[in-house]
Specification:
Rossmann fold; 15 strands; 11 helices; seven-stranded parallel β-sheet; binds zinc ion; 382 residues; globular; 3 domains; 20% strand
Amino acid sequence: MMQCPRCLNTDKAFFYRGSRGWYCRKCISFGRVMLEEENEPVSLAPVSEGSEEYTLQYPLTKAQEEIAVKCAELIDTSDVLLHCVCGAGKTELVVLSIAKMLKEKKKVCFAIPRRQVVLELRERLAGYFPKAKVVAVCGGHTEETDGDLIVCTTHQLYRYYRVFDLLILDEPDAFPFRGSEVLHGIAETSRKGHMICLSATPDQELLRKEREGSLIRLVLNRRPHGHPLPVPQIKVVPDKVMFLSLIRWLHRHRAQSCMVFVPSIKKAQYLYWFLFLLFPCCLCTSHTENRDEVIRAFREKKNGVMLCTTVMERGLTIENVQVCVYQADSRIFDEAGLVQMAGRVGRVFAYPEGDVLFLCRRRSEKAERCVKALREANLCAV
Ligand SMILES: [Zn+2]
């Protein structure tokens, strides 16, 4: 049976015979690899001396500490899923595991879906591990691809073949990972050791692996500040008056930052033209070119409104932010996405609570399941 050495594809329909031999068309966008060629593991520089020394900005809570220690033990023998609620400090949970690997002179990679977060995370990890060479590899940052600790977008994993002794995969249940066999295959072939998956909303695939015993799940339902997760209030209103409900809600929170998630870019633009007359307002969608700047301005303003689409549902921490999901019953939103959007609220110690509102045109099972999931997580945290 033929198998692509990079994306692990075995489907014959994707194999083509070129002048140099067989190659795989499934992952050809990452460059051509020949099937018959011996694939030597990519060799990288040895891990630097002392790179394992770390200091955290805040000490871990007892609950975090327990999970961190257990995870570092398990990665010698098994893949691990860290199933943590949004805002549980998942990066800090893997620091001990990273340190352990670096101490054994082993290579570690932290792969995340979005480019923006790669640069942020590199800074943070470089702060934690002052003696380690921490490199960011993503679009626009590809001159340097070797370090002790490599932080990259999932797409960049194709550069590494059987390299990592520990691969940390952030949100394998989210876009662009979700449902992409090619990216999953590429992640699989980039490592030679075990893997830690980080997720607040693990999908069926991850849970299946847990059932089959190929992965051990550790659950953390508590944020470091110990406060419960904000549970959304669901309000069913006719579409015609939904806008008024939104204005009323924004008015109530006019002294705070508010994120309003909408199902489409068109809807975001449409609402923007009305709202910017009433509130300091910005737009943040996949069409927003200067997204970093828009986010920075929104963060600094402390009382603005950000109209955004699902591109903003993950990875962002804003102090004292409130969240409204407009037309939360839309088929664009899924349960995991709704959990993530609600998870933007109450993340920092100074503002551990906040308000989440789901405005729906009709009863929505997805919204109800999201509320149920958050309530259950709160109950389990006690
Ligand atoms: Zn392939």
